[in-house]
Write a structure and sequence with these properties.
about 375 residues; single chain; globular; binds fe (ii) ion; alpha+beta; 10 helices; eight-stranded mixed sheet; nine-stranded mixed sheet; 2,3-Dihydroxybiphenyl 1,2-Dioxygenase, domain 1
């Protein structure tokens, strides 16, 4: 291969032909977390990850039940919401799951059609099409339920010029730490229960017109102790990718099982955030206190040239820099990728983040699964949950 590899957002191409386009998705709109203390969580995402203050609603804006902080970094929008009283429906979610993802919102051109088309195919409704208005125009949102208590909300904002959504005001803050180079959400992974992966694969195929674009079975994803299975679902234009994991039998407890125990059911396991300079991004994140999984052994780095194969001479990064920051490297036919995983970002061992830089590769780091899962197992052993 002679072409030079560049960091790419491969989401802009169509990755398979013939995908049903009854649900055209323009991309991820926002991800909403239900958390115990949104004010403090917002501080963490600003300080540690470099997210920028973007929008707000709360008592000052007339929202009596819920407070929400919206944070933005390039294309990524996170919403952190907390209840303001015991009546709010958010409480139930937090009591059961701890802090976690409630909404994966998808940007569409027509939220009514998205709702009608998915309901027609068997989706369970969450929110019928709702028009919200203010002086900047109107937004239409609708929503359906997916695995666990997680939901998809379809956001139609073509007639809206305000910040975020009606009801929110621009959030001006004197505290504005610099961004860390995070650009967009590459993929979002769901953990589902024993034997439920294929049910949800079919759900994404039937209800949302996604296709299964990569699969890993427990023979590929296992260590001495534990195993899992994973299938990657993608929408037609490749902008939205949802890998789905289920636990598999092993000598000890699968990390997916640990998640299901502590989240008390299926939910979002990790968000993969893309950067085009992972070395600089990880230096920043480490300096700001983000905790990553412990490094793989020396042998892992010794084997990297072999793993890169034909792409070896295209590796732009210094292997010593990668090793020093514990960044993992994998390759497929089309290029290579660099990735690293945080520890869980809340006290329950549930949601974590992946930081990823794609240099042509479209995979998900299958060559790193063993090293990654061994690192997770060492953490599980420390928690007494292996
Ligand atoms: Fe991932």
């Amino acid at each position: 291969m002679s072409k030079e590899l560049k960091s790419v957002d491969y989401g802009l191409e169509k990755i398979f032909e013939g995908a049903q386009d009854f649900l055209p998705l323009l991309g991820t709109d926002y991800v909403e977390f239900y958390v115990g203390n949104a004010k403090q969580a917002a501080h963490y995402y600003k300080t540690a990850f470099g997210f920028q203050s973007y929008a707000y609603k709360g008592l000052e804006t007339g929202s009596r039940d819920t407070v929400s902080y919206v944070l933005k970094q390039d294309k990524i929008k996170l919403v952190l919401s907390s209840p303001l009283n015991s009546e709010s429906a958010i409480n139930e979610h937090i009591v059961k799951h701890g802090d976690g993802v409630k909404v994966i919102a998808l940007w569409v051109d027509d939220a009514r059609s998205a709702y009608d088309e998915t309901l027609k195919r068997g989706a369970t409704p969450y929110m019928s099409p709702t028009v919200e208005k203010d002086e900047f125009g109107e937004v239409v949102r609708s929503g359906i339920r997916t695995y666990g208590d997680t939901v998809h909300i379809f956001v139609e904002r073509k007639n809206y010029k305000g910040v975020f959504l009606p009801g929110f005001v621009s959030w001006q803050s004197d505290y504005n730490p610099k961004p860390t180079g995070l650009k967009y959400i590459d993929h979002m992974v769901g953990n589902v229960g024993w034997g439920e992966m294929d049910t949800w694969v079919k759900w994404y195929e039937d209800i949302m017109g996604f296709e299964n674009f990569l699969s890993f079975d427990d023979k590929q994803i296992h260590t001495e102790y534990s195993a899992l299975m994973s299938k990657v679902m993608s929408n037609g234009n490749g902008r939205v990718k949802f890998p789905i994991n289920e636990p598999a039998e092993g000598a000890k407890k699968s990390q997916i099982e640990e998640y299901l125990d502590f989240y008390e059911g299926p939910g979002v396991q990790h968000l993969a955030l893309a950067t085009d300079d992972i070395i600089e991004t990880i230096k920043q994140l480490r300096a700001r206190g983000v905790e990553f999984l412990p490094p793989p052994p020396q042998a892992y780095y010794d084997e990297i040239p072999k793993r890169l194969g034909a792409h070896k001479h295209l590796l732009k990064e210094d292997l010593n820099d990668l090793q020093q920051l514990s960044i993992l490297v994998d390759a497929d036919e089309e290029g290579y990728l660099l990735q690293i995983f945080t520890k869980p970002v809340e006290d329950r061992p549930t949601l974590f983040y992946e930081i990823i830089q794609r240099m042509g590769a479209r995979g998900f780091g299958a060559g790193n699964f063993k090293a990654l899962f061994e690192a997770i197992e060492r953490e599980q052993a420390n928690r007494g949950t292996l």
